[in-house]
Amino acid sequence: MSPRTNPTTRNANPKHPWLRKAVPVFAALGDETRLRIVALLCAGGALSIAQLTADTDITRQAVTKHLQVLADAGLVRDIRQGRERLWEFEPSRLDEARRSLDTIAQQWDQALSRLKASLEK
After folding, report:
1. pTM value?
2. How far is CA 1 from CA 4, 9, 10, 63, in A?
3. Pairwise CA distance, residues 36 & 46, whole Å
């Protein structure tokens, strides 16, 4: 197994520290429920857990766990309004992840350009 495919060493590559920072964001967004929560928060502003579970079959406890994963990834944060706890989207981490994808896209474009150039020779 090469170092690239070995799961225990693939994150140890010092050439891509920006990628290591993006991993929690992509992992958090890889779940359909969490992605739906982020979409709701983007569309509706700060929402309570009761609002996030309205008209769904997901429990408040499940939403709380998903919100914690999103908060750990830096994608949401909670704010207190009196006795109520509201959750809101934090766009800065998503912007960092987008920059990571842009970097990967540039690397692919460069690799494809080199391949094209070598094939045209």
Report:
1. 0.71
2. 8, 11, 11, 38
3. 14
Q: What is the pLDDT along the chain (121 residues), one digit of tens a residue?
A: 444 444 434 444 556 666 777 888 989 999 999 999 999 999 988 999 999 999 889 999 999 999 999 999 999 999 998 889 999 999 888 888 888 788 888 888 899 999 988 888 8
Classify residue 106 by its DSSP letter.
H
Sheet holding 76-81, edge to edge: 47-48, 84-89, 76-81
Burial of 54 from C-beta contacts in 10 A (0-12 / 13-18 / 19+)? exposed
Domains of the chain: 17-120 (1.10.10.10)
* 2: enclosing H helix or E strand: none
